[in-house]
UniProtKB/TrEMBL annotation:
Domain of life: Eukaryota
Gene3D superfamilies referenced in this protein's UniProt entry, alphabetically: 4.10.410.20
Domain EndoU per the UniProt entry, residue ranges: 143-416
Record protein name field: Uridylate-specific endoribonuclease
Positions of the SMB domain: 20-63, 92-134
Physiological role: Endoribonuclease that cleaves single-stranded RNAs at 5' of uridylates and releases a product with a 2',3'-cyclic phosphate at the 3'-end. The UU and GU sites are more efficiently cleaved than CU and AU sites. Targets mRNAs to regulate their expression.
InterPro entries xrefs: ENDOU, EndoU-like, EndoU_C, SMB_chordata, Somatomedin_B-like_dom_sf, Somatomedin_B_dom
GO terms assigned for molecular function: hydrolase activity; lyase activity; metal ion binding; polysaccharide binding; RNA binding; RNA endonuclease activity; scavenger receptor activity
Length: 417
């Protein structure tokens, strides 16, 4: 009997420890604990793995708190937002002219975002300026739950994505975030060992690839498109709109009263993605599509370049040298997510996140979803049961239509938690 006492005590202690690991008691703001059944760190709301008593024990007045910043932040967006004078951002802070879809700014006396009707702080001309956007009533605000539901539908609808046998990835060495500025090549082999290029004959892939070489990668050099290149933009939009992925996205926004017809939706996509604006000294030297999918060079650095197909094709030509990665997503099938470091023909990308193995329409849909629903904010989605966030920024120095904003950038938020 005496021999059993230590065993019983050990079992009781183990049960007590396990119970502690299911509560945030004495654990608020601790570091991520892989052994625990649930978490109490500041990022758990984003990962949806907080303990049941997290909000009660670890937040002030039971309000949820924002997760800590994630690793990737587009440096050029910081620079451009700092350089932009207030007169360029808003024509009049007490009006919604040119401000529809803007992020909340506590310095403004009134607001023009989707939730201002709910809080009763819209500018007086909100309905006249932004009513055509389809969110002049609080019932039109898109909830987090709706975003997660539509992203799962888009994920399931992506039948053109790569299968496991279509791509052999050689991610090799991971580094810590503190090492990303060192510009050291930790991976002697290419990232892509094999890609089944039969994927590229599919209509959306082929239309997407035709667009990639239509741009001058250096900002400050104006873009001039031939008639054929403009037609290629229309071809891409036409092909992606045939897919189940984009039909799901349009149906979602149509149900939300954001667009009254598919043609209105397509016209808006063309403007927000392909409309030209100036990042440098030349008029019309950049666009959302060029920045996000093809990549740009500004002030001696790679900016944008968040697409695996572009990466593979440039690596195959010897123009991209894969250095390392700091994040590899949890998905066991494609699409997956990788946050990596690389050199693009003499220029370095410190942190570049990208979907791997996704179809062009899948990325185009998710980035568009988040830009329209959460412009300038972190957009929390769900893919295959795993949380995923996308960050977008709008271009605030020029607009199209009735004050609508172009896409400045969009990318998958990466974290090494």
């Amino acid at each position: 009997m005496k021999a059993c006492v230590p065993l019983i005590l050990a079992m009781l202690c183990g049960l007590a420890w396990a119970g502690k690991m299911e509560s945030c008691a004495s654990r608020c703001n601790e570091k991520f604990n892989r052994a625990a059944a649930c978490q109490c760190d500041r990022q758990c709301p984003w990962y949806w793995d907080c303990c049941d008593d997290y909000q009660h024990l670890c937040t002030v007045e039971k309000d949820p708190i924002e997760p800590e910043p994630f690793l990737e932040l587009e440096e050029e967006m910081e620079e451009e937002m700092e350089e932009a004078p207030a007169s360029n951002l808003y024509s009049a802070p007490d009006s919604c002219r040119g401000r529809c879809h803007e992020s909340f700014d506590r310095h403004h006396p009134c607001h023009c975002n989707a939730r201002c009707p709910e809080f009763g702080n819209c500018c007086e001309d909100f309905d006249s300026q932004c009513g055509h956007e389809g969110f002049s009533h609080s019932s039109d605000a898109i909830t987090k739950e709706e975003l997660k539901a539509i992203s799962e539908k888009i994920y399931r609808a992506d039948t053109n994505k790569a299968q496991k046998e279509d791509i052999i990835l050689n991610s090799q060495n991971a580094i810590s975030p503190s090492e990303t500025r060192d510009q050291v090549d930790h991976c002697p082999e290419p990232l892509f060992t094999y890609v089944n290029e039969k994927l590229f004959s599919k209509p959306t892939y082929a239309a997407f690839i035709n667009l990639l070489n239509n741009y001058q990668r250096a900002t400050g050099q104006a873009e001039h498109f031939s008639g054929q290149q403009l037609a290629e933009q229309d071809t891409f939009l036409r092909e992606v709109m045939k897919t189940a992925v984009m039909k799901e996205l349009y149906s979602f926004f149509h149900h939300q009263n954001r667009y009254s017809s598919e043609q209105e939706f397509v016209n808006d996509l063309k403007n927000m993605w392909f409309g030209l604006y100036s990042r440098g000294n030349e008029e019309g030297d950049s666009s959302g599509f060029e920045h996000v999918f093809s990549g740009e060079i500004k002030k001696g650095k790679v900016t944008g370049f968040h697409n695996w197909i572009r990466f593979y094709m440039q690596e195959k030509e010897g123009l991209v040298d894969y250095y390392s990665h700091i994040y590899d997503g949890p998905w066991e099938s494609y699409p997956d997510v990788l946050a990596m470091q690389f050199n693009w023909d003499g220029y370095y990308k410190e942190v570049g996140s990208a979907f791997i193995g996704s179809s062009p329409e899948f990325e185009f849909a998710l980035y568009s979803l988040c830009f329209i629903a959460r412009p300038g904010k972190t957009c929390q989605l769900s893919l295959g049961g795993y949380p995923l966030a996308i960050q977008t920024y709008s271009w605030d120095k020029s607009t199209y239509g009735n004050g609508k904003k172009y896409i400045a950038t969009a990318y998958v938020v990466s974290s090494t938690r």
